[in-house]
Write a structure and sequence with these properties.
single chain, mainly alpha, 5 helices, globular
Length: about 130
């Protein structure tokens, strides 16, 4: 008996991670809007001054990365948690370095984040599938 196996086309992990990475800054902006509208911003930083910007950015980016982790898991990018953490770390690192040399906005952050998440997926899938002896 022969069975015809149906091959399903799967999106490459690097492409899926790049798409999720490009969405992370946009989701972070949306999360920041929701946190402000819901009053959570006032709970996190009651003074409401300029010193609250780091709290707002890190909180909204953290929530966006957790949502990105869920999206990566749904897109079958393995290990999703490691890709999300490495992509977020690379994004924050390169965005921080690029801010020292030029003023970047959200539209510059989208391709940067996409490239960082794609690189994280490539690195984790490349070195994570090594046979163990």
């Amino acid at each position: 008996m022969s069975a015809d196996l149906v091959k399903t086309k799967r999106i490459r992990p690097e492409i899926a991670a790049g798409l999720v990475g490009a969405a992370v800054p946009l989701v972070a902006v949306g999360v920041a809007q929701v946190l402000t509208a819901a009053g959570v911003h006032d709970l996190l930083c009651p003074s409401g001054g300029l010193e609250c910007i780091a709290t707002d950015i890190l909180t909204s980016f953290g929530v966006a990365v957790v949502l990105g982790w869920i999206a990566l898991a749904l897109l079958a990018v393995r290990p999703a948690w490691l890709v999300a953490l490495a992509g977020a770390f690379l994004t924050l690192l390169l965005a921080g370095l690029s801010l020292r040399f030029a003023a970047i906005g959200l539209w510059h952050l989208l391709p940067l984040s996409a490239a960082c998440f794609a690189a994280a997926a490539w690195l984790t899938t490349r070195f994570g599938d090594q046979p163990h002896e």
